[in-house]
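Hello,

I think I submitted the zinc ion job twice by accident. Can you confirm which output corresponds to this input? Input:
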Amino acid sequence: MKCSICGRKSEGEFCDYHLLAYRKLKEAYVKWKEATDISWTEYLSEIVKNPFTGEWSKEVAKKLLEDGKDEAK
Ligand SMILES: [Zn+2]
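Support: Only one job matched these inputs. Its output is below.
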């Protein structure tokens, strides 16, 4: 399989780099959710807009928004 974001060879939907970024996004979301009642989609939009977000995370967030996946599973 190939990473659906960058096309690198991967075991699953994402390569190691994007998978790591995805896991970090989900972890950070749990913390955000404790503080504010933000939805997954709103959260992803914030990530994409945030200039301090790393490129890997930003690419993952954009991809998830495009796919329209509602919740982190
Ligand atoms: Zn990738």
